[in-house]
Every structure is written in C-alpha cells, then in structure tokens.
Write a structure and sequence with these properties.
alpha/beta; 8-stranded parallel sheet; two-stranded antiparallel sheet; 10 helices; about 15% strand
C-alpha cells in the first residue's frame, strides 16, 4: 500500500487570480486519488513541522521573518511571483510536517512509500530565501529529519520537476551525505542547474534543452541518473515530484507524456527496492496543466502502490 498525506489547509493557501500555482491544483490531485482504485490507500493528516525541524534547514531569523509577513487578510507579495496569504505559512508547515510524518511511518515499517499532496511547493526555497512559489523546502526538512531522527546516513533526493530545484541544491551544496539529482529544462527559471554545478560531488544536474522528447529524456535518465543513484546506494529516497515537464504544461517546454512519469517512477522504485527497503517519500511540486496534473498524479501513485 501507499500512504497518502493530505490536509484541507493545502487548499486554503491562496495565490493571485490567474496564478498557475492555484488551489485548484490541490483539488485536482484530490479528485484524481478519489478514484475507486485508490480507496484502499490510507489517508493521513499531519501536525505542522515544529520550529526545531524547520530551523535544521532554514535559519531561525528567516522563519521569523516569514511568520511576521503573514497577513490577516488578502495577499502579501514576497517576490514577483510568490505571494503569501493568511493560511500560507500554516499550509507550508503542514506540508513539511507531512513529509516528516511519512518518513516516520516508513521507518516504523507501516508501509513502503508515501505521497504528500502538499501546497505550497518547496524546492525553490533556499536556506534563507522564499521564491518560485515556495517558502519552506519540504524535501530538505524531511531529509534532515530522516538523518536526525532515524540515523540515516545517505539520503538521495530526485527532482524531476521541469524547473531546477535551486533551493534544495543551495541547502545541500556542501553536504556529501545528501545526493541531489535534478532533471530540468535549461534555459528556464530560475536560471540555475548547469551540469558544472556539482557541490562537493553530491549534486547531479541534468539540464534538458527545450523540446526534449520522451526518448531523449529516458536515454539521459538511464545514462546519468540511474548510475549516480546506484553508486550512492541511498538509505532513503525522497522525490520532488513535479509534473510540469509534461508536454501539455504551460510553464515548460519538455515533451514528456503520462507514460514517462510511470517509467520514471518505476526506475526510481528499482533503486529503492535494491538499496533502502523500498522506502520512498514523494512530495508534489509543480504541474500546472490541471488535466495533465490529475492524470500524472494518478499514474505516479498507481506505480507507488504496485511497489
């Protein structure tokens, strides 16, 4: 089985009218997983991540600054495309807390994998900077929690969002205990993620030219991502599961299909089964064509279920 973490607060995080990272994304993912085939999957909520877990990744001053910005009404612009409403920080804390709870459940042997339908997303949040729709870096917080609470030595984070996860790279730039792998379109926002950005040898960026096809993507994934993952032998795997590399997505130019996200999930699960007892926590990142997002979430979770 696969654990599903969700919470109504994810739908209460508001963005400006017409913004691609809208509450309907959460509703679409929820509806996709309301199909009868997913009824057996346990649905869980989680407590907000405590300050101590967040400040293991983000400075306390940064967290305090975000909390001070929360408006009583309306929206506050953090940058040109990142806005905060009254429920934003609660939603962000619960999203991070859900990844932590999922991590705890997997290490307690309650299941092999989990999917978190969180909003706002997290992979652009640097250690002291909110940007790209993101405030807290949920996957980074979960990685640190796995290490501190469960004694995990090696965590691998695989990010297949169409945008580079500059925040995750920033946080783990000089930390050899965490392998960060990103496949992403280049050039594209946020302008980072070149192949020569290597950290201390723990960063693997696979920049993709606009128009990258399924066949080219799979060739690069098998030629670069799989060898790096297998060589690292992670004890825990975390996914930044962005579905905006889909050919229908309005924010990217990569031409992946629904079947490609099935294939990506299968390949990652092969490593998880070999290296870390199947333990995988997947966190929703991007995906802005609502129809494609719903289908890809369903396809991704279907593969997780079959692990």
């Amino acid at each position: 089985m696969t654990l599903i973490y969700t919470d109504p607060v994810f739908g209460r995080h508001k963005t400006p009218p017409g913004h691609p990272e809208c509450a309907e994304r959460f509703a679409v993912a929820e509806r996709a997983l309301a199909h009868p085939k997913f009824e057996p999957l346990p649905r869980r909520t989680a407590a907000p991540a405590p300050d101590a877990a967040i400040t293991a990744v983000h400075p306390a001053g940064y967290l305090a600054k975000l909390d001070a910005l929360v408006p009583e009404h309306g929206l506050v612009a953090v940058d040109a495309d990142t806005s905060m409403g009254p429920s934003t920080m609660q939603a962000a804390r619960v999203a991070s807390g859900a990844l932590m709870a999922a991590t705890d459940a997997l290490f307690a042997g309650e299941d092999k994998n989990a999917f978190v339908i969180g909003r706002p997303p997290g992979h652009h949040a640097e250690h002291n900077r909110a940007m790209g729709f993101c405030f807290l870096n949920h996957v980074a917080i979960a990685a640190r929690h796995a290490q501190r609470a469960h004694g995990v030595g090696r965590v691998a984070i695989v990010d297949f969002d169409v945008h580079h996860g500059n925040g995750t790279q920033d946080i783990f730039w000089d930390d050899a205990s965490v392998l960060y792998i990103s496949t992403h379109q280049s050039p594209l926002y946020p302008g980072t993620g070149e192949a020569n950005e290597r950290g201390v040898g723990n960063i693997l960026n696979v920049p993709l030219p606009p128009g990258t096809s399924s066949s080219l993507y799979r060739t690069l994934f098998d030629g670069a991502v799989m060898p790096a993952l297998n060589a690292f032998e992670p004890e825990f795997l975390i996914l930044s599961a962005g579905f905006d590399a889909h050919e229908d997505d309005p924010l990217g130019g990569i031409r992946l299909t629904d079947d490609d996200f099935v294939w990506i999930t299968q390949r990652i699960l092969e490593v998880a089964d070999r290296c870390c007892g199947g333990r995988v926590v997947s966190s929703l990142e991007g995906g802005y064509d609502l129809a494609a997002l719903g289908r890809c979430v369903a396809a991704h979770v279907s593969e997780l279920m079959s692990a």
